Amino acid sequence: MQPVEIYTKSWCPFCARAKAQLNRLGISFEEIDVTNDLAREKEMVERADRTSVPQIFVGKHHVGGSDDLAAAVASGEFERLLNASTETASAA
To answer: What pLDDT is attached to residue 9?
Structure first.
């Protein structure tokens, strides 16, 4: 299973919604709180090419924000990404 990372800010309702959805699905994830961490926020922007939170990654694949996560779950794409081999996920 590919690792899941989610960049968040403590005050963000969309972050809370995305984390709740991952928890409901039973998905373990690494939360990277960028509320007061400019270096990690810069890392997020470089990886996602977006400045808003949350930003969600499955392996090296950028899923997007909260709405993108919901759409990926609904379409089955999220499960496919989770179960992809390391080589497949890197190429995505």
So the answer is: 98
Structure tokens of 4? 């899941």
DSSP letter string, 39-72: HHHHHHHHHHS--SS-EEEETTEEEESHHHHHHH
Q: Are 78 and 58 in contact (CB under 8 A)?
A: yes
Predicted TM-score (pTM) of the model is 0.90
Domains, the chain, ranges and CATH?
Answer: 4-91 (3.40.30.10)
Mean pLDDT computed over every residue of the chain? 94
- Partners of 73 in the β-ladder: none
The token pair that represents 38 in the structure block:
């400019």
- Cα three-residue angle 19-4-9, rounded to 5 degrees: 45
Task: List, in order, residues 6 or more apart from 13 with CB less than 8 Å away.
Answer: none
d(CA 50, CA 71): 18
